[in-house]
Amino acid sequence: MVGITKSFPGTLANDKVDFDVKEGEVHSLLGENGAGKTVLMSILYGLYKPDEGHIFVKGQEVKIENPAKAISFGIGMVHQHFMLVPSLTVAENIVLGREPEKPRFWLDKTKANEITRELSKKYGLFVDPKAVVNTLPVGVQQRVEILKALLRGAEILILDEPTSVLNPQEVEGLFTAITALKNQGKSVVFISHKLKEVCKISDRVTVLKKGKLVGTVDKTNINIEQLAKMMVGREIPAPLKEKRPNLGKVILQAEGLQAFNDRKILSLKSVTFEVHESEILGIAGVEGNGQSELIEVLMGLRKLEEGKIVLEGKPITNASVHERIEKGFSIIPEDRQKTGLVLDFSVSENLILGRQDKPPFAEKWFGLNLEKESDLADELIKEYSIQTPNKEALVRYLSGGTQQRVVVAREFSRQPRFIIASQPTRGLDVGATEYVRKKLVEICDKGCAILLVSADLDEILALSDRVAVIYEGKIVAIKECDKTSELEIGLLMTGATND
Q: Are 214 and 416 in contact (CB under 8 A)?
């Protein structure tokens, strides 16, 4: 890619960027949110057309008008926000466009399932071919996306934040698959904010900042400190929560929680735990072991079959979602686009969601005090460094990391007593991740109790006072973070050991 330039209204996303990928290499692409990484790769995949610049594949200049054209050139992309059909099964999604057929053009589902199983086994990314995608947790859906791209035999495979929903064991499996692809002469563009992973898997790393090329370093010169400085201009310290000698009073108590998932399978089995004032309790587990159902039960979004939930000594088991928020609940959902934001609302409108019917924003006869809404937006945009052209901009057109900041700003500004933080730094660059983690610690130190659900074990161990490991719908162990290790937690997560 030579001299690639792409602009949107109010934003210069790529400014004369050069980028190349060699045969049989892993080339990582780094940069803060809004740096232009995904836009650059979307141009390569045919989702956008460049305003200027040229693209060459194997020495020949090409025009890539759409993804079908990109695929014809051997270019595949796994997006950060999934491109699956929710109502179809895993196998149906994977073979979509390449369906094995029976006579009269009927889909051969048996063959599709077989293809999926073989592909899943080959790359160590295990999925259930018959499962309907909209019943799967985010981590499993990511695996489906990766397998879908691999089936199409991409010679250049673009992975946009592929490990953001994987546990350490799954990351190792993915890296094994990437190494196998590399050894076959295929090329991988690896977009990630996890610097340790980039240093481990990359042959070269290219850094973008504000749409411009900062530089490219090769494997012999790759180190975390240098990459952090290239991205944000300074080193990023690890935000650690100070260990408290004693736990405060209990804010939230969950006792004997049992609930079914969407497939009518018992996914929570007598889950019991408590979260104290000024405590962060981490929930560690492989995706699909009941985390999503636990969050939904706590928020009142899923029916609780048995058990009780108590907030500051008062039962809220039968309270509605609205009532729980009124009593001090807040949530950072795992999927910001589906459940955290209204994409066609402005930044300003999204920042008051949940409070639009209350003073000072609500006026008589269901009116909205636009001046108060505007004042809050100005305050939060500044405090949380929300990179938006203006407060009237639709959140749909913001980068994924900026969208996450909007969610975090709204939820933290409510001054809640209990926060469910589900993947709060997913898709954020190192600077934004540092900021959100500091905000979590800051609000926790003011007396808030936090339930942190994260696929990033480093994040769990750095921020939590205690960590509860969930496996097959059960809490199998609760450990003090300063008295355990990533290895012990990883073994508990996979059922390899018992408490």
A: no
- Sign for the CA dihedral angle at 282, 287, 289, 295 comes to positive
The total number of structural domains that make up the chain? 2
CA distances from 470 to 98, 226, 367 (A): 38, 36, 45
Rounded distance between C-alpha atoms, residue 428 and residue 406, angstroms: 12
Does a structural domain hold residue 408? yes
Report if residue 241 sits inside a domain. Answer: no
Contact (CB, 8 A) for 322 and 388: no
CATH code of 194's domain: 3.40.50.300
- Confirm whether 498 is domain-assigned: no
Tell me if 237 is assigned to some domain.
Answer: no
Q: Is the domain of 74 the same as that of 9?
A: yes
Under a CB-based contact definition with an 8 Å cutoff, are residues 147 and 76 in contact? no
Say whether both 356 and 489 belong to one domain.
Answer: yes
Same domain, 114 and 207: yes
Let me know: does 404 contact 350? Beta carbons within 8 Å.
Answer: no
Can you tell me the distance from the alpha carbon of 60 to that of 69, in angstroms, rounded to the nearest whole number?
Answer: 14
**435 and 385 in contact (C-beta within 8 Å)?**
yes
CA distance 214 to 424: 28
Q: Which residue from 462, 496, 499 is spatially nearest to 478, judged by alpha carbons? A: 499
Residues 6+ apart with CB under 8 A from 317: 304, 307, 308, 309, 310
Burial 456-487 (b: 16+ CB within 10 A, else e): bbebbbbbbbbbbbbbebbbbbbbebeebeee
- Exposed / middle / buried, residue 263 (Cβ in 10 Å: 0-12, 13-18, 19+): exposed
The pTM of this model reads 0.62
| Residue 103 CB neighbour total at 10 angstroms | 6
Element (H, E) at 401: helix 400-412
Residues 282 and 414 in one domain: yes
Length in residues, the chain: 499
Give the N- to C-terminal CA distance of the chain in Å, as an integer.
Answer: 53
Residue-wise pLDDT for 364-417, tens only, equals 666 788 888 899 999 999 988 888 989 999 999 888 778 888 998 999 898 899
Please give the Cα distance from 265 to 443 (Å, whole number). 36
**How do residues 71-128 score in pLDDT, each as one tens digit?**
999 999 988 777 899 999 999 999 998 888 777 678 889 999 999 999 888 877 789 9
Q: Which residue segment(s) compose the domain that 15 sits in?
A: 2-232
Q: Pinpoint the alpha helices (H) of 185-339.
A: 195-201, 224-232, 291-299, 321-326
